[in-house]
Amino acid sequence: MRRQGQGVVRRAWAVAAVVAVVVAGGCTGEPGPAPTAAEVTAAVTADPSPAPSPPPRPETPERPEAMSEPTPEGAIAAATYFLQVYDHAFSTGDESYFVALSGGDCLFCSEAIAEVAAMRGDGSRAVREPIDILHSSATEVRADEWFNVELRVRQGRIDVVSSTGEVTASAESEVVDVRLAMSWAGGWTVDAVDLAPATS
């Protein structure tokens, strides 16, 4: 598997798609009726609702010891950790752990990094339930060097929240098949990622 960005289905993992709903929401291009003077007065004099508190930021995922070796088991551990730091990046705005595993030619990686930066710029972030690995397998393409990993993952609900903690968009839980092309050169690099909704 060396395809990058071809037919990739981001779905619930695509926080940018959820954010796009927020941007597009309410922009129909057709102006609504002008408010009456009474409505304007009521809006000004009404007591504002208290702003919600921002949810706590998650801790950094623990790097598994199993990913210290170029084996199928090590590849699975590294791929799992990669998805955990992916979630961590969107939840905290800190993509450094994700970047450390991302290959320079990984289109999925570069798109995710750009999305995190955009959300950090407007003060929003994702509140995500932890992923659950339902199935995993790895194939050693070239001994101690190239590996293909397949993970079936349940991604929990995702809420996009503003800097004040207000939920601005959501995506429901989904089961996704994740296929990763990975290489080892003294450490792991994710070279390509394909996502697709689980079908069976």
Structure description:
- The chain starts with 14 loop residues before the first helix and ends with a strand.
- With 200 residues, the protein is of the alpha+beta class.
- Helix content is 31%, strand content 28%.
Summarize the entry for a quick read.
The chain is of the alpha+beta class and 200 residues long. It is 31% helix and 28% strand. The longest helix is centred in the middle third of the chain and has 21 residues, at 72-92.
Characteristics:
single chain; 200 residues; alpha+beta; 4-stranded antiparallel beta sheet; 3-stranded antiparallel beta sheet
What's the mean pLDDT score? 82
| Main β sheet profile | 4 strands, antiparallel
Can you list the strand order of the major beta sheet? 2-3-6-7
Radius of gyration: 20 Å
Low-confidence stretches: 1-12, 19-31, 39-48
Q: Looking at the chains present, what oligomeric state does this protein adopt? A: single chain
Q: Order of SSEs, N→C?
A: HHHHHEEEEEEE
Task: Specify the overall morphology.
Answer: globular
Cα distance spanning the termini: 21 Å
Helix percentage: 25-40%
> What fraction strand?
25-35%
Q: Count of helical segments?
A: 5
Query: How many E-type strands?
Result: 7
Helical/strand content category = alpha+beta
